[in-house]
Amino acid sequence: MPLSTRLSIADTLTLGNAICGFMAVYFTTTGVLIPHLTGTEDGGMARHSAAVAVILMLMASVFDLFDGLVARKLRASAMGAELDNLSDLISFGLAPAYFVVTWGMVASGASQANQRVSVVAAVVVLLAVVLRLARFSCVTLRDGIFQGMPSPFGALTVVAIVLLELPFLPTLLAIIGVAWLMVSRVEYPKPRGRLAVAMLSWIVLSMGMLAAWALDAPGGQLLLQTGCSLQIVLGAMIPVFATARRVNTFRDNRRESRAEQRAAQLP
């Protein structure tokens, strides 16, 4: 068998990412969209299916986190990078975009105009992920950073915005804002070491919040709102800190440059 067609352990994790993304679309369709269209909608079933879909996206992000770690520790196949991009496109591009479309159709009081606009927002999210993944493949950055919000983080932030059930216009603007952050030049740290542990812990905690909400546990709705709010706050604060750091670095460089010019002018 040619080396290029052999799957490594990291590749297997990457395929797990793709499967989770597809199954997220499946549960969104069968448990939320189809019951709404056929008039057999059940609030409990829709809540359960939506929670399962989001948990699957969270699981996809876990696979995405570990496939990179495993690839660095062991080995990556010749297909590794391509498989990773294709899987990310399914789990963090198609799945959240489809979630946005479904939200536009099933949201209470959604007009036809709102439905059409939600489709546009979903397309914006999908294109942002496509462009971000394409740029990631052809742009070399210094080690330890991403340029633009990572697609797993962006996808989960989009889903958190939808689950928070804000009014239509703020939800739409927030979704487009996240899409812009994914294609922006804002620098985000890569999840390594303590940051990877913190991210994994947050994912597990989020799964617990979603399970409590799906099972209609006491305080489940509050837990969901708290988790979604924290996800959105994190998405908003990281660019602020990154911008502040770049401004400080720019100022320090200017000071050093002025100091060098003064030193050069001295007799």
Description:
- Helix 2 (43-73) packs antiparallel against helix 3 (80-106) and helix 2 (43-73) packs antiparallel against helix 5 (151-163).
- Strands 1-2 form a two-stranded antiparallel sheet.
- The protein has eight helices and two strands; from the N terminus they run ααααβααβαα.
- The radius of gyration is 21 Å and the shape is globular.
- The protein has a single domain (3-237), classed as Four Helix Bundle (Hemerythrin (Met), subunit A).
- The mean pLDDT is 85.
- The chain has 267 residues and is an all-alpha fold.
- The longest helix is centred in the C-terminal third of the chain and has 46 residues, at 220-265.
Strand content: under 5%
- SSE series: HHHHEHHEHH
The coarse silhouette is: globular
Helical percent range? over 70%
Largest sheet: 2 strands, antiparallel
Quick check: average pLDDT? 85
What is the number of strand segments?
A: 2
CATH class, named: Mainly Alpha
Uncertain residue ranges: none
CATH topology name: Four Helix Bundle (Hemerythrin (Met), subunit A)
Strand order in space, largest sheet: 1-2
| Gyration radius, rounded | 21 Å
Distance between the termini: 72 Å
Structural class: mainly alpha
- Tally of distinct domains: 1
CATH architecture: Up-down Bundle
